[in-house]
Amino acid sequence: xxxxxxxxxxxxxxxxxxxxxxxxxxxxxxxxxxxxxxxxxxxxxxxxxxxxxxxxxxxxxxxxxxxxxxxxxxxxxxxxxxxxxxxxxxxxxxxxxxxxxxxxxxxxxxxxxxxxxxxxxxxxxxxxxxxxxxxxxxxxxxxxxxxxxxxxxxxxxxxxxxxxxxxxxxxxxxxxxxxxxxxxxxxxxxxxxxxxxxxxxxxxxxxxxxxxxxxxxxxxxxxxxxxxxxxxxxxxxxxxxxxxxxxxxxxxxxxxxxxxxxxxxxxxxxxxxxxxxxxxxxxxxxxxxxxxxxxxxxxxxxxxxxxxxxxxxxxxxxxxxxxxxxxxxx
Length: 330
Hints:
This protein is an alpha/beta fold. The chain is 31% helix and 19% strand.
């Protein structure tokens, strides 16, 4: 996808066919490293929420919710979101809204250097190492610096990741990434920076884990080449794994199936008869017209909106079981 389309994607993805019902929204726009939004339960009336400088002028882009309304509840579970390559913090906002309506706090940010408005690090190995650190920083902010931090139960932390965000989640919950393995998918004639670094061993160390995360939902995780079965063996938290039968956009369905089969424990695994983009929030008519590539599902006839109704409900159910029903313990 060319950069121009990534800009359009970032501008339009938030326009859903079905709005949120009761999610409160606070925008994070004072720090480029923490640019995004927080969704949470509240009793306010949902309205259109313009994104201001988080959107690219002159487009009039908004979310739907009760902006800056008081948080309802106490000792609430928190789920942090990680978007895919070139995405942005609203990529799965329907899921974030469903969780907020169900009593969760949700926080999502743009990954610096790899989002719809900033591609400066998108194709560099450094972003593979920085993404998990971005999520650690977000979690630190939510627990220590967010103005409403007192409502969060630090023993009830979850993670949601799509595509490269799924890779990010695997690392955070205990997997060890070996970036030298990137050489396995490089052709001998490929002299690009990442291939040369992988061959020489000049790669970043495996990014940090975060033991505060107690459960994770990962959808069509990318970068499966970075993990061996041994590298995945350190994962000890409950996982809900979603994968597409058809893959796409650099995600090979054969490798997502292999990784899912190598995960320790008994992860909850779901396979859908569609392609990679089916996990993105349903497209508005405007987005479908502007960027049909990410809105046209395969096979023809796959109903993304109907799927997300079930997908969001399954994500909510999973996090309720593992972050609420068991009291937040492992």
